[in-house]
Amino acid sequence: MDTSFDNQQATQELTPSAKLALMHAQAAQDQDSKIESVTTLSSSALSGDLSVGEASEAQEAEEEKEEEVAEPVREPAPKKKAGLDLNSESAFPSLSSSSRPAAVSGWGAGSAARLKQASPTPSGSPHTPATKKVRNVVTDTLELAREDQIANQPNKPLGFKSAAESIKQVMSKTSTTINASTSRAGTITYLIQGKEADVAKAKREILANLAVKLNVQLEVPSSTQRFIIGAKGATLKQIQNISGTRINVPKREKADSEPVDNDDEEAEDVPVSISIVGDAEGVKIAKAEIMKIVGEKTATQTVKLNNIDSHYYPLIAGADNKKVKALADELDVKIRIPTFSVIALVEADNDNEEQATNKAETSIVISGDREKVQQAKQTIEKTYADLERVCGTVKFEVNKRQHRFIIGKNAVNLMDILEQTGCTVELPSSTDASEEVIIRGPKNKLPSAMALAFEKANSVQVQVLDLTRVNKSAADQQKHGQNLLRYLTYGSKLKQLEAEHGVQIMTPRGSIAEQKPVLEFVGKEESAVEQSVQAVDELARSLQVNYFGYADIEPHFHRHIIGRKGQNIQRLSEAHAVSIITPDEKEESSEILLVFEGKASELEGLDQKAKDAKIKEALDAASAELTKMAADISDFTSKTIKVPAKFHGAIIGPKRTTLNAIIGNGADNQVFVKFGSAAPSGDKPRNADLAEDAIVIRGPTEEVNRVVQEINRVHEEAKHEDFLNSYVTECVIPAEYSAHVIGKAGANINKLKDDLGVKIDIEDGKAKSEGTPAKATPKTDKVKVTIKGIKTNVEAAKDRIMALIESLADRTVTSLSIPRQYHKSLIGTSGRYVKKLEDKYSVRIQFPRSDASADASDDNSSEVSSVAEKSSTDEITLSGGKKGVAAAKAELLELYEYEVENNNVVTFTFDAKHLPHIVGRNGAKVKEIKDETQARIDFNKPVDGVVTTSLQGTKQSIANAKKAILEAIEELDSQVTETIKVNAEHHKRLIGAGGRNIRNIVVEAGGSEDRAASMVRFPRSDDSVQDEIVLKGDKEIVAKIRAKLEQLVADEEALVTVNVDIPRDEHANLIGRGGSNLKALQKKYNVRIDFPKAGNASSKEPVTIAGLPEDCEKCKADMLSKVRATHEMLIPRKHHVAVSGSNGATYRKLRNEFNIVVDHKGETEPKANKKTGALNGSAARIDTTEGSDDFNLEIIENEGSSEEGDITWVLKGDQKNIERAQKYIKSLLKDAHNQTHTGYLTVPQSMHRYIVGRQGSTISRIRGESDTNILVPNKDGDVVVITGTRAGIAMARDLILEVVDKPKNRD
């Protein structure tokens, strides 16, 4: 490419003064000895050595030489578009005119720099006309008009430096060479030479220092504000860095999380004015970048739909949001439909009800291309309108405890119902006592959705155990129940029971646990649920009230009592056989629960009193020791200081960083601080027990005093405005420790930044993060660490870094050679043993690289890694404090010696094809062998079809393991695979309900029930061959299964169908409730029974029985024997009411006691005549007798039905029972003839017991003698009712009065 032509073109586009300056630069680069006219900015010029007159003379000399330079520059151009006219007065004005005032230098009055003045340029923004590259050096020009120069402004900013000083600083800072020339119009042209990046930086520096700053207002839509700012202001910072301007964006009136208003349509874009301050060129760049963002973001739209009932959200979205996802994919938009109803409440269980409610109230939001968004909006609104037209609701009640089974885990059952029926299920919240369930969806789908909801609700068995009722003798059953709940939920007791019985045990949460401690047991098998309830109940009953004790200790002592990793509590529990359960820190409770857990053998042979004494002794001893431990921490104190609540946030700091810096963070923190104001972090609501300005500090006295002093200091600093400004400090650390300070991938330094909210910079070049390969660092090298942030936090960060350096100085690395075969034993399962050593001695232990999977830690330091790489595969590397490394090394050697003495290793090989069978599914088979033999078994990768197995353990355990493996191989060799052809129509019967039949066949043949599916494989629906059954397993077992299947198929083909005529009204009796009787018959005779469908067949359609001939006949005979006999009785209609009894009492007695059902062949039952008067009314009363003031008898004639004729009573049941029922009904009919009147005898309640007599003897005698029926009220009332003839009632009255008038009864 001809660069000379490009340069020529670029040159001709320049202004005259720029062209002249460029000619000077080209002449200087070509080192033309004849041209020496360009004056560089020398140190003498910058220092102001020339006078104003000398500068003027130099300027004239330069102008004369410029004319000589111009011609050679134009000669190389092959083609001239617009030549440079050196005679042009406009380009090169004459200097001879004395009437024109001299131009004022742009460098200021105080500097007499030897700067060449160029031709005048039109006023305006700084101009950068061309750039010329010579090798790696770039030449560029920059023009600054007179009116754009700060030096020419009447009011200069504070601290403004002269042009000479600024240019000198720019050249030093950017490593460039800058030449300048000034035209008569005052325009300065800067010629800048250097590397491309340095030249660009120099131009920005010149404009920033010397150009007048503009303040431009730019209006943008408010919706684009957050995009201009970017995440954490990143985009805005980038624009400012590129343009060198300062951009002020007004504060948004609402949070970024609110992309749209509450309107149905897109939120109105209010114009927002953005201020851009900078030079003209920078402002132009900033405006272009901002408008680019605005252009991109205004092409999209976001709308809200709040006119849609949220109950229809799931129907619009579809199961698992399939419908809305399809719509979003089709139109390439984003659609957010919030969760509703139960799904929202499920989320509320993990968060809080208020948040869930807010989610449920959120509208549908659509965002994307404007046109596509409108299409999506119209589609959703049309779908909603269609749903409103076709949908309905049905309400029903389901036990509250079963609601969560309708929901399912992660609402999977709700999605299943929605998928299958297109209906949604709405349930009340868990805190609402309502049991109502609402199904919403297409009206024709509501019944199936309702049935499916009931199926989900009843899919599991649920039982409840109320712990308050376990021990009814407890004085405070509520408290005892709470204690039981705390004990059962402590540790893994309930989890063990869950695993044993295959159930889930639900515990109450939060305040519910304090109100009513109950446990819910959930499982698929009722027997498993009952067994788990029984197991927990037995455990709870074994813990009597005296098994529980308490220790009252202030909450701030609990952490110290527990000890590191619970060591103190574990020691106390083992010493006294007592479980020690501390409350959660959030509860701030001082009550520590103690539960006696002594072995039953320790209490054997003791009477109850001695047992109680022993339990009390253990609990008192544990409580006393806990109290003593708390008392020993006598150094603890509590102080309350007053600090205005408005400063609490500054003391706590962002994300508690300042407070962490004050009190320390982690397990070593011994101080508790509580604020009276609401916590700024939102951790807890305001503490009503404390004054708003109060701060409570508890802990060791020395630490409390220090924390109080620090809080007061931060308070004083927070009063000053500069508190929030950054505080910077520096420290120097050895370079060899920088990797440890940084951590792997910056983990350590990032944690320190997050904990304390500071910025930390470590000197580049010498510091490397852990895991980064680096050359060995000389120990004499130092690294500077700079920390910036709030002063308190900065000082805390510095202290932590220096403390880490001190611990690293004590660090040592050593290695230990132990044969590789013992490494896994030393590491332990999942690194358990080696991690325990690391925690115990605060060291890091690294095994050879090939054992990396079992290393105790993946985060190995570069120092340890370098040692490990050099070591052999037998060497173990230990690093840490010198004492800890020595102790860990000694213990590893002890473990190694133990392994050598007790562990033997044997290897053998077998065919690789047997490996899956030996390992088993998910390793179950090999795990079983390991558990039985207590041997360690390792399989190497197969090589050439052979697997090498390593057995480790005692000689006996190795022998047993090898024998078990070889037996498994032998068993596998005896396996066969056979195929049997069976017509597909027989498969269902062979499999049975839930696979029951085939499992029984496999078990009978000697196989395992769990392996039935793998031993007998029926063809799937997509298999090409549908009549082949594959049998796989042991030869003998497969032969037995084959024989059994062939027999069953033969029996199946010999099946017959038998018809039996059974009256239609007997069908329900034979089917039974829920089909129980029908299922029993089918199971008993191994047949299939089909009843005609109700409403579809005539009453004469027979019942069919399908099965083997002999089975069908037996079943038929049994069914006919169950058909009930019938007998008809005629009862006078006027006595029907009396015989049937009050509210059908006679019907119920016949059904319950005689197993007889009564109907009336469709005849209408007569009703009793209405009474015409009250009890004391004269219309119904026949006679009134008053024997004394205490007794009164009223006799009323009974009024039965006035209907004439008879009503038919049809009795259905067993013949013998029918005969018994006939006698009973006849006795009732006789009584109805005799009981013509009813007497109401008033007898004081206190006398009733004499009328009844011992075990009812007296009243039975009176009934027999008077031939009446006597009813004495149980509790309330004084009236005794007597039914019979009028004479019989009178006799009964006399006999009753005779009883109550006896002297011994009257006293």
UniProtKB/TrEMBL annotation:
Residues 57-70, 258-269 have a biased composition (Acidic residues). Residues 23-132, 248-269, 851-873 are annotated as: Disordered. Residues 36-46, 118-128 have a biased composition (Polar residues). Gene3D superfamilies: K Homology domain, type 1. SMART domains: KH (SM00322). Residues 88-113 have a biased composition (Low complexity). The keyword Secreted does not apply. It comes from the Eukaryota. Residues 951-978 form a coiled coil. Keywords: Coiled coil, Cytoplasm, Repeat, RNA-binding. The keyword DNA repair does not apply. GO terms for molecular function: mRNA binding. Its main location: cytoplasm. Residues 136-211, 212-295, 297-385, 390-458, 545-627, 635-716, 725-806, 810-897, 902-970, 974-1050, 1054-1124, 1125-1230, 1235-1301 form the K Homology domain. One of its GO terms (cellular component) is cytoplasm. Transmembrane segments: none annotated. It is found in: Cytoplasm. It holds the Pfam family KH_Vigilin. This is K Homology domain-containing protein. It comes from Umbelopsis vinacea.
